[in-house]
Specification:
CATH class: Alpha Beta
Strand content: 15-25%
Mean pLDDT: 89
Shape: globular
Number of helices: 7
Number of strands: 7
Largest sheet: 7 strands, mixed
């Protein structure tokens, strides 16, 4: 029987399109006067474009030490295997409701349940709030008796970056690492040093200035090059098998 890692890796490779948000390319430049609450509202409205949940998926809301979360359960799911999904949104937006449908499709296709949760968002809660909440949710999962080698981390965009940052933190703390991880278009460099920020500016879905604003909001008064903020600068040796998926065209 295929392993948890191979099943999820193959499904993610074949179905990464499920997390390509079909939003209009908004080219209105961002600055520090851009309304984050309005942006969050637009993201929630845009989530409706992903359609209804696939059949056979049950949603079970729960609270994890003050963190809003929910189980996405496929029919006949094995209860000890879990996709631990960390949502994206530039660290300033994202919720269970706006990621529920695409994550449910991963659940449906893989036959593995998912835990989706809402970490605190910037600018109200800058680093390390998001990573603290992610660690708290993961430790809670282990406390429920789920073995770490039966868990796969997955996340998109900022959530993909948080996947890698959380793995670094777990390694540094000597805590159990998951079996594997999947990072879909992860945001790994909040210093924005990559040449692609300039060469792909014309085709990037994000409006001009958004990355700089979100980086500042999330890093707060910290150096954005810290590995827990920008895992590109961390020592990734010793992490579990990790699939990093990205595209060169839209």
């Amino acid at each position: 029987m295929p392993s948890l890692k191979s099943r999820l890796f193959c499904f993610m490779l074949n179905n990464s399109h499920l997390l390509r948000f079909q939003l209009k390319k908004r080219k209105t430049a961002w600055d520090f006067n851009t309304s984050i609450p309005l942006f969050r509202q637009e993201c929630e409205k845009g989530a409706a474009r992903f359609g209804k949940l696939p059949g056979g998926i049950k949603i079970e809301p729960l609270t994890i030490n003050g963190i809003k979360a929910e189980w996405l359960l496929p029919a006949g799911a094995v209860q000890d295997k879990t996709i631990f999904f960390i949502h994206g949104g530039g660290y300033v937006s994202g919720s269970c409701s706006d990621h529920r449908a695409p994550v449910a499709k991963f659940v449906k296709g893989s036959g593995i349940r998912a835990l989706l949760f809402e970490y605190r968002l910037a600018p109200e809660h800058p680093f390390p709030a998001a990573m603290e909440d992610t660690l708290k949710a993961y430790c809670w999962l282990l406390e429920q008796g789920v073995a770490s080698d039966h868990v796969v981390f997955a996340g998109d965009s900022a959530g993909g970056g948080l996947v890698l940052a959380t793995l670094l933190a777990l390694k540094d703390k000597g805590l159990p690492l998951p079996a594997a991880a999947v990072a879909l278009s992860p945001w790994t460099d909040l210093k924005l040093t990559g040449e692609s920020h300039r060469t792909n500016a014309g085709v990037c879905l994000s409006p001009p200035g958004m990355s700089a604003v979100c980086s500042k909001y999330y890093a707060g008064g910290n150096d954005p090059g810290l590995p827990y903020i920008s895992p590109l600068y961390g020592d990734l040796r010793g992490l579990p098998p990790t699939l990093i998926y990205d595209e060169t065209t839209l």
